[in-house]
Amino acid sequence: MYTYSDFDAAFVAERNRQFRAQVNRRIDGSLTEDEFKPLRLMNGLYLQLHAYMLRVAIPYGTLSSRQMHKLADIADRWDKGYGHFTTRQNIQYNWPKLTDVPDMLDALAEVQMHAIQTSGNTIRNVTADHFAGAAADEIADPRPVAELIRQWSTDHPEFQFLPRKFKVAVSGSPNDRAVIAAHDVGIRIVQQDGQIGYEVLVGGGLGRTPMIGKTLNGFVAQADLLPYLEAVVSVWNLLGRRDNKYKARIKITVHEHGIDEIRTLVDARFAETKAAFNGADVALYQQIEPQFAAPAFSTRDTADFDRAYEADPVFRAWADINLAEHRAPGYAIAQISLKAHGQTPGDATSEQMRVIADIAKEFGHDELRISHEQNIVLPHVHKSDLPQIHARLKSHGLATANIGLISDIIACPGMDYCALATARSIPVAQQIATRFDELKLENEIGDLKIKISGCINACGHHHVGHIGILGLDRAGVENYQITLGGDHTQTAAIGQRTGPGFSAEEIIPAIERLVDAYLTHRTGAEETFLAAYRRLGMDPFKEALYGETASKRTRAA
Amino acid sequence: MPKAFTPKVITANALIEGDVVYLTADDRWSPRLTEAELLTDEAHAQVRLLDASNRHAEVVGVYLADMDATQDGPEPTHFREAFRRKGPSNYAHGKQADL
Predict the structure, then answer these.
(1) Which residues of chain B neighbour A347 with C-beta distances below 8 Å?
(2) Is pLDDT above 60 for A552?
(3) Model pTM?
(4) How far apart are CA A226 and CA A247, in angstroms?
(5) Which domain range does residue A345 map to?
(6) Best exposed site among A84, A174, A252, B2 by fewest CB in 10 Å?
(7) B56 contacts in A (CB within 8 Å)?
């Protein structure tokens, strides 16, 4: 894992010192809120519905056990004993006091973490595939690239006052687990004639105008990546619509100018940036890359795993659902679900964080990942250790076997916490999970991604959910719109609206009717919800939601 | 015709704690909605809002929130204000636990 250089440590310490002084000046009245707000946002501090919220970056979703222990300690000392893991590989503390935040940031710095650029109109925390460094289908580990971009973008003097926020995600595999097509810039590591390079997508994003990213360049050479990215952001920095915040994101710029014009402008700018870069970026990358070297994998047999798999049906169910293929023989990637039925998606108590940290230390080469799907990943575990790991997870409520199933729901904090929300998300997620657990249908339904946002900003990724739910305020009442057919992977697609929304009381039965329609119409268990939707189209689902007449009326229209 | 003025209270978040507070008739910031001054006159409400907005050292984000006048004091007309008064629905945190 990456270790801070002296420069990194000094930079974070200096920023923390500055922020402590800014907080003091806000409290003694030297700074007004209007003056203080951009400063606190640059350091990840929001003011939400009931309290402040501190958003801490987990760069490319990677944590060591020591870092996870520190997150738990912070939750206990300055918050309410839990943290919320987000869709952008951050952790949010929902209840800090303003006066405690400088101490929280200093505590984070002790384990080489920070909250810099987790908000504001800057380049945000760079996210990556949560199976990075472990996945069997990986061309190269995306994290060295993500770390290079983190260093380049942190406090970048040209990019501190961008037209709007700017989000970058990196995938090292052809199978996209990082939703790169829904980012301002998505980077996919590719191979051409034996050379590693990068496919660069631009202009993706969710929110009020959802767009799938377009390929700007099919192959950017390794040495050209930073000057190329600098050209992209620089072109947008000048063209981006500062007159209207709803039209400021690069997706609108690409839409308005067209990908070809953007490509011409980027290529022209790239000629300048490439000449200006002096090779320091390439040297830096060469220093970063070895720090992400794979751990020394052992070559034990998997007899313990095989025995438990045969003998224990609970373990078998968990292994079938929560494990993914690892690139090293005898190893697996184990996902720890933070979606226990009826609980808040993405929340972990400090005790759970410590249990997970200790498992990572003891069995997992001291590595953890946070997924954008709000779960925790043990990227490198030997299969023979899995029975023990499972038993320990089980005793702490962490062995829910539901990864990728209907109860593995992404949900933003919604109006339970967020000042921007128009409706609640968490209770809807809790009720759907509880209901399908009661019905004991989850495994039969199979792969089905439900994603819920509590406002049009789409932090809950509802546009790319197989079933998306968007909570709105309709004349002072919570109302939930449904979209179908969204896809967050390499075949990314934006879901289509079914029609009028449903009240808080109606939304769970509506989801149940949708799922019933799928089970009725699918060709067999091997046809997933998304595949069935693509084959059947909207009609049978509309009929399930609104009745036969409503569906016919739309067909006629 | 302009819309009739509906009853309101002045609310904000406390600077240090960040929690929801309401302006009382005797110029205190109270965490309890029941103690809030119910403003029924538009001109009076605007003056109170101006004064409250200048209290930078105490609060952030001062605004007028719609309320119904009831026997038990002001009651939120919108669910957002109902959540602000109570706290989140997933845990017994915030005002529902503290008050």
Answers:
(1) 90
(2) no
(3) 0.96
(4) 26
(5) 309-394
(6) B2
(7) 29, 32-33
